[in-house]
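Subject: for your reference before the review

Hello V.,

The reviewers asked for a structural picture of the protein, and I figured it would be easier to keep everything in one thread rather than splitting it across files. Below is the amino acid sequence we used in the manuscript, unchanged from the supplementary table.
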Amino acid sequence: MHDAVRASLPELEEWLPWAIGYDRSVAQRFVRDSASAWNDARAFDFAIRLHEEPDFHVGNISVWPTSPANRVGEIGYWIRSDLTGDGIATEVTARTIQIGFEELHYHKIVLRIAVGNERSDRIAKRLGFTFEGTLRDEVEVGGTWIDHTTWSLLESEWPEVRDTLQSDGVLL
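And here is what came back from the structure prediction:
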């Protein structure tokens, strides 16, 4: 994971607060905290790997409850920069949506995307999410406040989206 982050740091620093000042201890803390969060059902973090190169770290994707009482969850991800544009994020996000609806029984799944991150906007659209609006000054990254768009997909929409993604070969 550390090598993948280091290879992508200039791009990650643009969108993600944890990338600012990143070093190996940040990765170690994430792995330790991830195991604890998984055990407590606070977040479910997954490493993204290639079938043909299972030791090669491509990125991470997580799903976590943001409103357990209302069965709302959120997904966040990052992909190493040299592999963006290959459909990996779309594929792993589709699978994580499936986990969210079919295993975690969420009613609604949300994506929050930094304004200007057009690749992630395209993924949200491709996966059938509905644009809900813009959250102003949502996250501080490197001393600058950035807006985020928010997108959602409802459990009632999932069967049709799932069938389309399966037909298109995005979801097995």
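For the response letter, the relevant points are probably these. The first strand starts at residue 44 and ends at 50. The beta strands are 44-50, 53-67, 72-79, 108-114, 130-141, 144-154.

Happy to draft the paragraph if you're swamped.

O.
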